[in-house]
Amino acid sequence: MFVHGLPDAARESPSVLSAWVPRKPKGAVSFRLPPVGFLPGRPGVPREQGPAGREPRTPVAQIHFILLFSRQGKLRLQKWYTTLPDKERKKIIREIVQMILSRGQRTSSFVDWKDLKLVYKRYASLYFCCAVENQDNELLTLEIVHRYVELLDKYFGNVCELDIIFNFEKAYFILDEFIMGGEIQETSKKSAVKAIEDSDMLQETMEEYMSKPAF
């Protein structure tokens, strides 16, 4: 659930894309998500059976949960792909938020935590954190986080923390279009955003229809 309350950083000025997405230095390697259906296998993970004559599909990463929280420790979004009691979830959230916020800015974005691996990235005043399997590729997981930020920015336009606070249902909807069951289901930004816009259009049509008097 969302924890409401606006931090001082959110009141001062909204974050624009330049603040959310850091500029890539010259010579930096760019990692791109391969299309679904052409993803490499992972060691120790059984491959799915695909159609005859085709490469079986395997996910980029098996995500256990995703957390979005501010630098003040306020939880903005949580998505769980494993079944846990609410008490255990609250304990995990509290532990992870405290651990990540206590780390320095120049430390690694990868943290070994219990039998999982935490991959996180800070964009402006928000931290995006994913918990994945130990054998999963950390760089591809970072690209997943970055792709979600790009989807948010493409939908909201210069997305900021306030957009997620006041439109959290849209943030969840965008995430569900991108990831389902802890695995990527749509790598195309254009297709994901179009699905969201179509849903908005349908909702507006239904609201307009319901507002008309019945004769």
TrEMBL record:
Quaternary organization: Adaptor protein complex 1 (AP-1) is a heterotetramer composed of two large adaptins (gamma-type subunit AP1G1 and beta-type subunit AP1B1), a medium adaptin (mu-type subunit AP1M1 or AP1M2) and a small adaptin (sigma-type subunit AP1S1 or AP1S2 or AP1S3).
GO molecular function: clathrin adaptor activity
Protein's name according to its UniProt entry: Adaptor related protein complex 1 subunit sigma 3
UniProt xrefs under CDD domains: AP1_sigma
PROSITE patterns for this protein: CLAT_ADAPTOR_S
Classification lineage: Eukaryota, Metazoa, Chordata, Craniata, Vertebrata
PANTHER family: ADAPTOR COMPLEXES SMALL SUBUNIT FAMILY
Matching Pfam families: Clat_adaptor_s
UniProt source species: Monodelphis domestica (Gray short-tailed opossum)
InterPro entries linked: AP1_sigma (IPR044733), AP_complex_ssu (IPR016635), AP_mu_sigma_su (IPR022775), Clathrin_sm-chain_CS (IPR000804), Longin-like_dom_sf (IPR011012)
Residue ranges of every copy of the AP complex mu/sigma subunit domain listed in the record: 62-201
